[in-house]
Amino acid sequence: PAEKAQVAAAAAKAAAAAAEAAAAEMEAKRMADAEAEARRAAEEVHKTDSAAAKISAAAKISESQPSVDAAKTASEEGAQLSDKSKPTSDVLLEAAETSQ
């Protein structure tokens, strides 16, 4: 009887150890899955940040574009005005009138 009890106790200990090992294995898998999900999320954030930066840069370029176009137009108009054989004061007066 005592021998049977020892065998039963050893079997119970072995079963408990096997259950513990299975639980540890499941926990390790859960942790690995969580780490992989965190990496995917970080990559998505990086992609989103990168896209946002590109959009922001494009917005800044498009915001500055009208002033670039206006400066180019004014420069072209100034060149056309100065090509005419008029006194400088007349050219400046015309340029001032056209800009208003």
From TrEMBL:
Residues 50-62 have a biased composition (Low complexity). It comes from the Eukaryota. Residues 33-49 have a biased composition (Basic and acidic residues). This is Uncharacterized protein. Residues 33-100 are annotated as: Disordered.
